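Dear colleagues,

As part of the handover before I leave the project, I'm documenting each prediction I ran so the next person doesn't have to rerun anything. This entry is a single chain, and its sequence is reproduced below.
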Amino acid sequence: QVQLVESGGGLVQPGGSLRLSCAASGRIFSNDAMGWYRQAPGKQRELVAEITSGGSTNYADSVKGRFTISRDNAKNTVYLQMNSLKPEDTAVYYCTARYAWARRPAYWGQGTQVTVSS
């Protein structure tokens, strides 16, 4: 069983920054891809960013140039640095773990709220 625990969410003004962290425990394979999804009220859950064990990254067009995903394999931790935040970034952010051979995440965290508002 894998557990993912997010932290770092909160309230921030437009243009501000936040860094989300996700600590993974349990049977994590070194070749798993780690990622972040988000879901805003009334909208579908969407992929924000993903990073493979080799460091390859994938971002949603809406966050390119503003968000950076990184991982520390030794600590089984993935981070999401969010800069130049906009009100439309307001959502619950979920950490995920996907087996390298799978198309969808196998594990999800409980989510952390990010609110961008003045």
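The mean pLDDT is 94. The first strand starts at residue 2 and ends at 7.

All the best with the project,
I.
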